[in-house]
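Running this now, will post back.
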Amino acid sequence: MEEPPYTLQRLGVIMAPDSDDPMQAWGVLNPACARSRDGDLWLFPRLVAKGNYSRIGRALVSYDGAGAPAGVGELGVVLSPDESWEQNAGTSGVEDPRITFIETLDVYVMAYSAYGPLGSRIGLAYSADLAVWHRLGPASFAYDPSLRADLNLYANKDAMLFPEVVAAPDGTPSYAMLHRPVWDLSWIRPGEREPLPAGLHEARPGIWVSFVPALAVEADLVNLPRFTQHHLVALPEKPWEALKIGGGTPPVRVPEGWLILHHGVDGNIVTGRDLQPGVLYSAGAMLLDVDDVSRVVARSNTPLLEPSHELERDGIVPNVVFPTGIDVRADGSADVFYGMADSRIGAARLTHVDAAPA
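Update: finished.
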């Protein structure tokens, strides 16, 4: 399989936790980003308080003289774990958002991880202006007899939506969401895993896609979280993905197809721990077919970015680069925002290998 023709170069740290703010005691990380209607770029970081209690913030991105992201300002909170399905007996959290502007609906849609009674679930919210957000509720997955599994019973996260209508497997024009259900529980309980869906012989977590008919969503946005036609997209394949993979940045249409950056995890699991000290999170690229978004046409054999910088190796969870936000620039390059060691936020420039230097 060919490799996606892209490179990723660090630009530097753009956000670090404020030691005077208890909401950031355990770090700022894994942000979404989106352009407002007036053209400003806003970052939506996960703000982690002591005890792994997470909120989603909103901060305006500033730029240096060369046009690179340099910092943030005007920090506020747009989403807190106020709903019971975002809370559990140990802690609570709304985590790791991804934001997509869907032009045909004229709204921004946020997919996030809700850390509730069953572990991580996918939450969806929408906004007209990036400032005020309205929950659509948890994503639901219609029972598919061919899978012989109810995806609502599994933990799920790393969700992101395509920005335009695509074809579902049965040809129906649909909105689509990438997500990452989990059946391998060895992170928490050694040697345990949930029953696998029919036809799946690989317990390591991978990327899936589900669909909702466009006509239903355009008739009433409340239908957006009601997904059907669930299909596997990709499983771990490369050494740097040995433990699991998951989606990173929302899909961007490029000449070669739909481009996403994803994370791959390698290393050693310490069973019984939530925050894993012995794993390595790296970032690569994946291209999906325009006509069949469940088909991978190219993926990185080696990482585009791995935790080699000191600030990516030292933090709440060491050795992590975790891409979650992408902003396409006028010249076709893109700025990528990523979590660094679950503690701070970095930016990197994504460039096509055939493009002239900016």
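The first helix runs from residue 214 to 219. More later if anyone needs it.
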